[in-house]
Structures
1.
Amino acid sequence: MNAERRTQNAELRKRFTRTFLTSVFCLLPSAFLFGQPAPPQYEVYAVRYAVIPDLPVAGLIADADKSRKLDIAMMVWLVRGGGHTILFDSGFYRPQFFKSWKVTEFVRPDEAVARLGVNPEEVTDVILSHAHWDHADGADLFPKAQVWIQKDEYGYYTGEAWQAGGKHGGIDPDDVQMLVRINLDGRLHLVNGDQEILPGVHVYTGGRHTWQSQYLSASTRAGTVVLASDNMYLYENLEKHAPIAQTFDRDSNLRAQDRMKGLAARPQLIIPGHDPAVLTRFPKVAEGVVRID
Ligand SMILES: [Zn+2]
């Protein structure tokens, strides 16, 4: 009886040791090597929803020749992966903007992203680079989305900007009310500076295009892509190391552009906010839509 129990115990010990060693040698290295789950590889698309013809380049690039004009692309960017369908910026659609601007080739932003097979209800997140009309106005076209904006951007444009001495150029009162409604609805997220807001999706401040504008980076199969939005209007800003024409702080804007170079896997993956060349430098996947990577 005792001998039998001893054999059983020895067998159990052996089995335990085997299991333990297997755990140590198989699980520990994987914990060390893969302790942080790899971020999803996102697909990133630029979606043009309109063109504003003949815009003076001096309005985009500080100190540019005043006679130069450009048909600028109005874009939103779709970032898809890891169970999220993210829009970086949301374009515009309210009627007042068509009275004050000449707009051609307009497709409402929710219809423009439908060209990638995305229904408005499927957009999980709208990340706003800043509160200007042509980037934030369309946020309420995506009724289920969580909306992300810098805390200081939201605070300033829903408050102090409208007091004496405040600056609210390019901010539409309807959009301010819309953002407040989204906040009351429980869908607004206030981002405090540089932050990873979803796995592999970071936002960074620094351009001071508006009170606290932000740009975005996402991990893709080609490495990190940077979506600059208006913190870098055109490729020319980066190529000439020229600040954007509209910023509260030129030095801060240049520092932001320099930082983008350090973040992006390669300089070609820094995507400017309004450059029509984006639509020709990347492969076309639908009308007005290119895949960045
Ligand atoms: Zn802007």
2.
Amino acid sequence: MTRNPWENENFVADSLESIDRKFLPGTAQEIEFIIRELGVSSGQSVLDLGCGAGRHSIELASLGIHVTGVDISPRMLDEARKRVKARNVEVDFVLQDLLFLEECFEGKTDIYDGAISICESGLGGLGWEKDLKILQATKALLRENARLILTTFNGIRKYRGERIFSKSFDFLNGTVQWNWHGKEKLSEIQKAYIPSEMKMLFEMAGFKKIEILGFNPGSFGRRALEPDDIEMMVIGTK
Ligand SMILES: C[S@@+](CC[C@H](N)C(=O)[O-])C[C@H]1O[C@@H](n2cnc3c(N)ncnc32)[C@H](O)[C@@H]1O
């Protein structure tokens, strides 16, 4: 089985630099939207799936929200702990592959008021059966009527235009291969779901009121998905 590239220190260091540069400035706007859509406030709890260096976890915690951040990368969580300390907030970080979310929470259920998974954080690289397992485990952890907000690649864009002929796009499986030529050569396979597949996956996991929206990083809002949007946002309610 291919190792998850997020377990490679050099890949993570490189990615973190680019996440900070591209996405950190827009985080405050994303948080405004997230708290409004999740309907959470001080004293409530949010699960941040694939939390990385805590970009969203830390901002939510600074609003008095109890946050659990789960990530597979020790390097990301080391950085997240440093940032938490610098901001003088508290976040509960858990080093874990999302695939083992249910086992990690030892079968606990109905404990979070909302969940987020922002920026291709765990789902998509594992195959749909595993993605479904993660969604089912997430749903179990949410309280009744709590919501999950997830952002992921928009498969429609991949199926349009010349990209369909690209060697890095497998149109039968809808997967994209990203190659990283840093200190080592690594590659990551990401499933670019089309909206109807994502809706079906959320339905299979038992989510209701599923919505698919378009967005740009740092500009989250309620707008329709455009075919050429790079990413899409999926919102589901337990
Ligand atoms: C692009 S980063 C985004 C981080 C953060 N959500 C943000 O928006 O800044 C993707 C994150 O997902 C984590 N990740 C990838 N696969 C994962 C898995 N199977 N289980 C847990 N975390 C995973 C990576 O370690 C990385 O921190």
